[in-house]
Amino acid sequence: MSAAWRRNLAQALILVMLLALPWVVDAYTISTASKILTFGLVAVAVNVLTGFTGLPHLGMAAYFGVGAYTGAIVAIQVTATGPVQLVAAALAGAVTAVATGSLAVRARGVPFLMITLAIGEIAHHAAQALDSITHGTDGLRGIPRVVPLPGMAELKLDGLVFYYVLAMFLIVLGLVAVVMRSPFGHTLGGIRDNEARMRAIGYPTDWYVLAGYTFAGAVAGAAGSLWTTTQRFVAPGDLGFEISALALLAVVLGGVRSLWGSVLGMALVVIARDYIGPDLGGHSPLLLGLLFVVAVYLLPRGLAGIRRRRAVKPTPEEVTG
Predict the structure, then answer these.
(1) Are 41 and 173 in contact (CB under 8 A)?
(2) DSSP 288-319
(3) Nearest to residue 66, comparing CAs of 110, 23, 98?
(4) For all residues of the chain together, what is the average pLDDT?
(5) What is the band of 139 on the pLDDT scale with cuts at 50, 70, 90?
(6) CA quadruple 206, 211, 212, 214: dihedral, nearest 10
(7) Which string of b and e fits 15-25 if b means at least 16 CB within 10 Å?
(8) pTM to 2 decimals?
(9) Which residues have C-beta within 8 Å of that of residue 245, sequence separation ≥ 6?
(10) Is the pLDDT of residue 110 over 80?
(11) If you compute the radius of gyration of the chain from its CA atoms, what whole number of angstroms results?
């Protein structure tokens, strides 16, 4: 069986397991699965910049939060139709990313990381200060239940909400995969590997990086819409540094330049924090720190690197030493 067949079979099995999940687990587990898919998209957005472009990001919660508030406001004041909320949230995330990224993309390395960290903190404090829009620390409540398509009934069961989140997750993830495999995605990879050479042959690298930054902001904004769909509440804490840090940790655990690896990494993070952490007396940050250390030393390419190492056959020289 070829590697492509094994990969397709594994993805099909994962999809079947996800579809069967609401029938075999309790409401809390379903809610956790929805959280993994939602935050998984945030990790994918971080990976677009960290893995595919070579720019580690620590402020993605800003665009996630903008998308969450936008989705909530659209749901309350305009329509309960989920895809409309998602598109509006993605657009809001993209616009915010353009406004802030035009400054961030002028830097590289540690300065870029610090600028994105500052962007996340500014967004967090703005959500607290703009009381007339965000309701401050009280948060936005009264978000109606999602309607998957115009004319359909609202989704009241947790399992049906999970199916909606899963469908939107697959659509957004598929879009990211198409973009990253396109010439635009390959150009971002070239900038990651050798930006000076790409600039020398005529590519406006800053514009390409800004476009990638904007696309990542749109993906994070779409994830924010899914968050309000499942929680029906959004507060400034959803823009906190913890979200950005966990997303970057998920990318490291899952493997850079692997979209599914980002999601699997986020699954590990959420399970460690929400399932195992409470049994450790509130020491989930310690467990996450240990996971990070283990990943760096034993899995330098993340979970996705395990499959890659198995797929690569050693040369005769490597076998004989």
Answers:
(1) yes
(2) HHHHHHHHHHH-TTHHHHHHHHHHSPPPHHHH
(3) 98
(4) 85
(5) confident
(6) 120
(7) eeebeebbeee
(8) 0.88
(9) 58
(10) yes
(11) 20
